[in-house]
Structures are given as C-alpha cells and as structure tokens.
Amino acid sequence: MDLIATAIKGTNDVLPSEAYKWHYIEKTVAQTAALFGFQEIRTPVFEKTELFERSVGDTTDVVQKEMYTFNDKGGRSITLRPEGTAGAVRAVLEHGLFNDALPVRAYYITSCYRYEKPQAGRLREFHQFGVECVGAPLPAADAEIILLGRMVLDRLGIGNVTLQINSIGCPKCRANYTAALKSYFSAYKEQLCDTCLSRLDRNPMRILDCKSPVCKEIAAGAPVILDYLCDECKEHFEAVKGYLQVAGVDYIVNPHIVRGLDYYTKTVFEFTCDQLGAQTAVCAGGRYDGLAEELGGPHLPSLGFAMGLERVLMLMEKQNLPFEEPAVPDVYIAPMGEAAAEQAMKLCASLRAEGFSALTDLSGRGLKAQMKYAAKIRAKYALVLGDNELTQGKANLKNMATGAQVEIELPHGLVSAVYDANIQTAFDDLNDTLEKFDKQS
Ligand code: HAM
User: Fold this and answer.
1) Closest Cα to atom 31, ligand 1: which residue?
2) What would the DSSP string read from start to end of 212-280?
3) Same domain, 270 and 419
4) Is residue 296 included in any domain, yes or no?
5) Any domain includes 7
6) Which strand (E) or helix (H) includes residue 406?
7) Whole-number mean pLDDT of the chain?
8) Is position 201 within any domain?
9) Which has the least CB within 10 A, 172, 312, 322, 340?
C-alpha cells in the first residue's frame, strides 16, 4: 500500500487501543496536582517567537537549534511551544492573576515541539505534564513542588527513579561564577564547538549543557556553581534540603545539573532513571525567580517542573505497571434482517439513554461473524434479534463471559435486564473478592 503521506519523523500516533494508558496517566497526574491545590491552565500551542527567546534564552540549544519557528501570513514570527513554562507565565501576567491570592498554582498537560534528533524517549512532538507555582519565594515551595513530582511518580508506581538536586544561584552569585567559567573555558577555545565559542562571551554557563562529546568532556572539569553561591542562595538551598529530609524524600546533590533553559535561579532538580536509554530525565524543573520581570511583569519568585509523558509511559511499560483497564461495551445487539436492524437501533438508543454503551452491526455481517466481533470487542452482553424474537417479543440476553442467558421482554425488558445483570456481576465479583480474602486470612 502506497500511502500519500506518513507521520512526520519524531511524532507518535496514539491509537484507540493504547489511548487508555494515556487517559490513566493524565487522570493520575491531574488528580495528584489537585491534591496540592493546582488547577489547569491551557495556553496556545504557538506564541510570539520573542517570548521563548526572552524566557528560555537566545543562547540555549532549545532556541538556537530546536524551535519550530515560521512566519505567519501576516509576516509575524511564530514558534510552536518548545516547553510550557513561558506560555503559562505569560498568561498569568497578561491576565493579572498575580493580583489574586498568591501563589498561583497552575498545571498543564500539553504537547511541545523541539527539532531534536529523534530516539527512544526523545521526540519532536512530545507531551509534558507541568506545574507552575507563581509567587512563592519560600524554600518550602521548592520542597512542595519536588514532593508533588515524587508523588506523581509514586502513584503511577514508577520505581528506580533518583532525585538529583542542585542550586544554580541568583544573578548576584552568577556574576562571579560566569567570570570563573569564562576563564576556565578560554583555555579550550581551540577545541570548543562553534556554538559554544559564541557562548563563551555571552553565556558561558550554556557550554555546560552542550551535547557535543568534546565540549562535554571539557565541561566535566569546569568550576561548579555550588562553590560560588552567595549566603542567601546557600541558606535557601540548605532549607530546601532540610524540608526534603523532614518529608523523607531521598535525593542526591549533583553540582553538574545546570538545566538547559536560561530562566532558572536557585534550586534546580531532575528525577532520573537509567531505563530511559540515552535520555535520563523523566521530570525536571526548578526555580525561576526573575522570569516574570524579564517578561515585563512584577517581581514574582516562582518555580515548577515538567514531566515527559512519553518517558513516563515508557517507564511504566518497561516496569510492567498496570494501567486502569479501558471500559468495554456493555451490550452488542446482533440483528438479522432489516426490521431487526431498526429495532436494534432503537434498543441501542434506550440503553445509551440510561448510560450503557451499546453497539450494533454497521457492516452487514452474518450472525457468526457478529458474535465473533462481539467477543473481540469484549462486549459484556450480547443479544440476537431475528424474526422469531421480533414476532414473539422476546429475546435472550447472553452474558459473554459465562454464557448464561436470561429471557427478556422486548423492547422494555432490555434496560432493566442489563441493570440486573450488572448488579448480579458486581455481586458475584464482591463474593469472589470476599472468598479470596477469607482464604488469605
Ligand atoms: P525540560 O528539562 O526541557 O524542562 O523538559 C522537561 C521534561 O520534558 C524532560 O525531563 C523530559 O522528560 C521531557 N522532554 C524534554 N524534551 C523532550 C523530547 N524531545 N522528547 C520527549 N520528552 C522530552 C522544561 O521544559 C521546563 N519548562 C520545565 C519547568 C517547568 N521548569 C519549571 N517549570
């Protein structure tokens, strides 16, 4: 088969048979965010390019190499969001949400776009669950956000995840650190890649997250920011660690985490797992105390994280974790002939009106093929409607799992029979569970 077009490299389709996994993950993250008081924010998939240049930073890999940027028909430079923080903070500022009670607690489940080399766990269109807590200067906020990330991973059952934290200080401590980096990297001018060479004067910290192997090796011996923190940043970091200890959350301090986005200040963190192939971070974030001002708003110390949902899914599958089972159809009605097909339509409508899912034949199949189909879609009950059933006004409702049949009066007996059968099944399940429980104890 020669298709006119196939999906773009680095993008994924979620097929109907797999969608329940996404629903389960999305439900779990949203419910956990709600436990911490977060409400959903939805922002446009594209924004003005300068929003990302100013927030993510024009010397970052994301802005320099990875953005999907284009001119729209009005000649404006537009970019598909490479991450969710910039748009969320823009919306908070634009709608003046900071005038209400602070902090603003917003979460999102959203698609992001980065022109990266696709590989396992690295896509060009990917999805993030992110949280942003705007207007929360205390170290307790850092701990709370980290606890939220941890709780989401725990509730999904994901194991083998390490929390790594660091502090990258504020602009005050950054000045001394930048000077130290400049002098260190200047000795390697000949070896640095062209991009890093251009970063040397403007933003040498970005050399620390260059993906080129040579730059990576040079960066491994660079001075670390923790040695340059001012007293306030040191104190803040100590307090965050203290809160994490009190909460019983294990972490390791990794002074090499600097994050690839420019807006970060003070605490940064990553939840990493070695089952993600070349990628390691399943969730990452930190504080961005200067971002609101950078975007023209008031001073609003803030922080957040984003979790890569494809990576979450990959880990859950690798770790054989359960997903909530998808709902199966309640009833399949197999009509034989035209009059029966009309009756089947009516019966389906009355079942659906009562909240039961009901399907009937749309492909013109014979009885055997229809019953096969009913089994394939795992319908709970099936009903055969032929001439006999129509003339007698009676039909048999078959429980597909047990084969048991009950006779019903047509048309009004069906809905109540499905109710009764469901109650019976629930009752049987309960009895099974109690029996198992009795045997165990
Ligand atoms: P980030 O580290 O660029 O941070 O991305 C966060 C997470 O998104 C990563 O840890 C990873 O799980 C996932 N991710 C990133 N790029 C890809 C990709 N190409 N394919 C698949 N998954 C990917 C941010 O985006 C920040 N906005 C996080 C944040 C929110 N910081 C504060 N608030």
Assistant:
1) 285
2) SHHHHHHHHTS--GGGG--HHHHHHHHHHHHHHHHTT---EE-TT---SSTT-EEEEEEEE-TTSTT--
3) no
4) yes
5) no
6) strand 405-409
7) 95
8) no
9) 322
Residue nearest (by alpha carbon) to ligand 1 atom 1? 284
Looking at the fold, whether 257 and 398 belong to one and the same domain comes out as: no
Ligand 1 atom showing the smallest separation from residue 287 Cα: 32
| 71-118 per-position pLDDT tens digit | 999 999 999 999 999 999 999 999 999 999 999 999 999 999 999 999
Q: Residues 64, 206: contact at Cβ < 8 Å?
A: no
Tell me the mean pLDDT in the region 336-351. 96
Tell how far the Cα of 55 is from the centroid of ligand 1, in angstroms.
15
- Residue found under tokens 């399949």: 332
CA of 386 to the centre of ligand 1 (A): 57
CA–CA distance, 277 with 108 (Å, rounded to integer): 26
Nearest to 400 by CA among 373, 426, 427, 432: 373
Is the minimum distance from the CB of 126 to ligand 1 under 6 angstroms?
A: yes
CATH number of the domain within which 267 lies: 3.30.930.10
In this structure, which amino acid lies at residue 20? Y
How many beta carbons lie within 10 A of that of residue 80, not counting itself?
20
Q: Average of pLDDT values for 211-228?
A: 92
User: Are residues 37 and 163 both part of a single domain?
Assistant: yes
Residue-number span of the structural domain to which 262 is assigned? 16-170+230-318
pLDDT tens-digit series, residues 108-144: 999 999 999 999 999 999 999 999 999 999 999 999 9
Of all protein residues, the one whose alpha carbon is nearest to atom 13 of ligand 1 is 308
pLDDT, one tens digit per residue, over 366-394 is 999 999 999 999 999 999 999 999 999 99
Do 134 and 243 share a domain, yes or no? yes
The answer to whether 46 and 81 have CB atoms below 8 angstroms apart is yes
Helices (H) and strands (E) in the chain, counts: 15, 16
Going by their DSSP bridges, the two strands 302-308 and 252-253 should be labelled as unpaired
Q: Are residues 104 and 125 in the same domain?
A: yes
**Strand order from edge to edge, sheet including 302-308:** 39-40, 104-113, 125-134, 302-308, 281-287, 265-272, 162-167, 252-253
CA-285 nearest atom, ligand 1: 31
Confidence (pTM): 0.94
Q: Looking at ligand 1, which residue's alpha carbon is closest to its atom 29?
A: 305
Angle made by CA atoms 147, 149, 153, in degrees to the nearest 5: 115
